[in-house]
Amino acid sequence: MNHKRLGLLLGDEEDWPRAFEGLARWMGGKIVWQNKQSQVDVERVRIHPFSLQHGTSYDLVIDRLAYWHFTPREWLKKAALMNDLYLLNNPFTFQSMEKHSAYCAMMRLGFNVPETWFLPPKVGPDNKKYSTTAARYHDLFDLPEIARNIGYPIFMKPFDGGGWRGVTKVDNEAELMAAYHESDTELMHIQKGLDNFDVFVRCLGIGPDVRSFKYDPAQPQHLRYVLTDKVVDDETNEEALLTTKVINAFFRWDFNSCEAIYKDGRLWPMDFANACPDIALTSLHYYFPWAISSLYAWSQFCLATERPMHVTMDIKPYYDIADSDRSFKEKLREYAKLADQHLDTERYWEFRHTALSNLDEVMWHFTRSEEFDQIIVSTVQELFPAHEHEQFIAHYRGLIAKWVEDNNR
After folding, report:
1. Contact in structure between 203 and 258 (CB atoms under 8 Å)
2. pLDDT by residue (tens digit) across 84-120?
3. How many CA atoms lie within 13 A of 181 on its CB side?
4. What pLDDT shows up at residue 280?
5. 167 shares a domain with 285
6. What is a single molecular function from GO for this protein (predicted)?
7. Which DSSP state fits 20?
8. Which domain, by its residues, includes 305?
9. What residues contact residue 11 under an 8 Å CB cut-off, 6+ apart?
10. Which of 108, 267, 304, 371 suits 200 as a labelling partner, its CA being 20 to 30 A distant?
11. pLDDT in tens, 219-245
12. Are 285 and 165 found together in one domain?
């Protein structure tokens, strides 16, 4: 029997790691695939100094930390390059392909990204080299004129993203100049805002498994994912799902979310480089069991098939399609073929339906257990003030109970 080690690289999260660990125990830890049996042990990764020459005992790591914590990020990069460690997600492309680069690449592929401008920092580095360069070569620009040409409302936000960090909605020139002044040394984008939209669509992609949700960013966290049987019409929903899958495969991301606005019959992807997508119980609520099951299934597939880590990107086949005379719908389907090839989609679903044929049933029973209920209780107690505990424990229990009822087979 092969022994595999799956590491969870974590920060302050406890809800989904406890659910993932619990599901792994309930599944028994063994995988049988193509007459090979593996024992998978799940543990939390520790952070400490490391030798570049030493190996690692991990086979796969689910990373929720390296997008901001540089010590583990450099360990992940070293382990991927030297020890063939499989990573969810790819730290190389998340470091080099921040939201700015992601916008550029997806515009190149023909996606309907809202008009976006890059701005120099309001305050540059405090040194003579920069001031001399700026005096010689930086052109003065009329920011209000740029904004008027884009049209209000506008969103000003850091070019590299950061979980709504520094995002400001701007409705007029005074707000524009105030937001730019506040940005200080940050490099910023300004992007056309799409207000009065029909639906805010959020997709979560885990390997080839992508799901769309109706999302309301104006609501508090526990109400943003809206329960609905139909997010958008079938054609638009397919476009949203394929868009997410293509973006993830293009950048070699296994675990990512894509936000898009549906307005006036068109889908506008506008936020799709998320190194640490939301998978919190308090956000996903009803959809939380699906996310945990999907993350478990994809990680087990990568381990059982010994899927190689794809460190580098291969953009030429996508650009060849982009430069063809096909319509965008035709291009999207061709992009999706490349994505399915990269994600090994057909084999994944075969693995899911055979090696993990009992996963849905086990997840169903797990969500009805005292162990899962304690995850709900402890999460609420940790995140909400004491006077709201009773209210929100009942709230999340009710939504999970609805999922159990709806998935009773």
Report:
1. yes
2. 999 998 888 877 778 899 999 999 999 999 999 999 9
3. 6
4. 96
5. no
6. catalytic activity
7. H
8. 199-359
9. 64, 65, 69
10. 108
11. 999 999 999 989 999 999 999 999 999
12. no
Tell whether 292 is covered by a domain: yes
Query: What is the separation of C-alpha 207 from the centre of its chain, rounded to a whole number of angstroms?
Result: 11
If asked whether residues 126 and 238 sit together in one domain, one would say: no
Record the tokens describing residue 284, joined without a space. Answer: 């996903």
Burial of 13 from C-beta contacts in 10 A (0-12 / 13-18 / 19+): middle
> What percent of the chain is helix, strand and coil (3-state, nearest 5)?
45, 20, 35
Residues 32-63 have pLDDT tens digits of 999 899 999 999 999 999 999 999 999 999 99
Using CA atoms, how far apart are residues 23 and 375, in angstroms rounded to an integer?
A: 12
Evaluate whether 286 touches 400 at the Cβ level (below 8 Å): yes
How far does the chain reach from its first CA to its final CA, in angstroms?
A: 33
Reading the block at residue 41, the tokens are 């042990």
Alpha-carbon distance of 274 to 303, in angstroms, equals 24
Global confidence as pTM: 0.94
Q: How far apart are CA 90 and CA 214, in angstroms?
A: 27
> Domain check: are 144 and 212 in the same one?
no
141: three-class secondary structure by DSSP: coil
Whether 73 is covered by a domain: the verdict is: no
What would the two tokens of residue 237 be?
Answer: 């929903």
